[in-house]
Amino acid sequence: MLSVASYPQLPPEAGSEVAFCGRSNVGKSSAINAITGIGGLARVSKTPGRTQQLNFFRIDDERRIVDLPGYGYARVPAEVKRRWDQLLEQYLRSRRSLRGVILLMDIRHPLTDFDRQMLAWCQVAAMPVHILLTKADKLGRGAINTTVAQVSEALKTEFDLPVGVSGTGGVTLQAFSAAKRTGIDDVHTVLDRWLGFEQAKKTPVRPREEG
After folding, report:
1. H or E element that contains 121
2. What share of the chain is helix, strand, coil (3-state, %, to 5)?
3. CATH no. for residue 192?
4. What domain range is 127 assigned to?
5. pLDDT tens across 143-173, in order?
6. Hey, which residues does 106 pair with through a beta bridge?
7. How far apart are CA 181 and CA 31, in angstroms?
8. What is the DSSP secondary structure assignment for residue 177, as one 8-state letter?
């Protein structure tokens, strides 16, 4: 794993990478571990905002997964939050090797102000976004379907984003549960498309830590 705290520290832009981001305590680390099939790859903490740097996990020499700092609840000084915001915005708008963003939202509390800010940054950068509505195991099937429909409609009306379109600047979304492993195959399909794998559904992405 390679951890960086400022834009000049980022690794070379060769190859492709996908970034995972979301509000603190949304279950981002648990999702990364479930999707990659490696328990403990991304450290799970009960303290919101534990991830305070950009953490790069190497899949192979040409592909990476990036764990971005959790935003929203982190108990850090205002100046630190300001630096995080600047780093995230610059990364999303300027990183040429970034192929897409996996944006995680708690299905019980989707589209917070922080989620909207991330979507706005991605929209400016014409960056494809795949939304994971996490902790879907906390709701029944009817409530899940209702929330997915409401979020989809909000994306269309508030951001004028083409929901369900996988091209540049488009947004796709799904319900997800790391605890129940619900929706993992769908995420693998997205990673397959963005990172160029042919058998993502059959061979889960398994990053190697940077030495």
Report:
1. helix 113-124
2. 35, 25, 40
3. 3.40.50.300
4. 2-209
5. 999 999 999 999 999 888 778 765 556 899 9
6. 134
7. 9
8. B
